[in-house]
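Annotated sample (chain length 67).
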Amino acid sequence: MMKVKDFPHLVRDPKSKAIVNIDKNAFYEYNQKNLVKDNMARMDNEINTIKQSVNEIKELLIKMAEK
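Output written by the structure step:
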């Protein structure tokens, strides 16, 4: 791997000629952000499922009260 001039966290792969970021902190932060996004999406789905269940229970209670 050869360092990229003026960019201490970048190196060039000699085989593929790809530029690779070797900054482990940046990689960790990127993964943390994605983890937070995934957790937020999962919680959003769970909240929507709970809302739907509460609405179904509410409808059943209304039907029972009408009898």
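Annotation: The chain has one domain: 2-66.
Annotation: Helices lie at 24-66.
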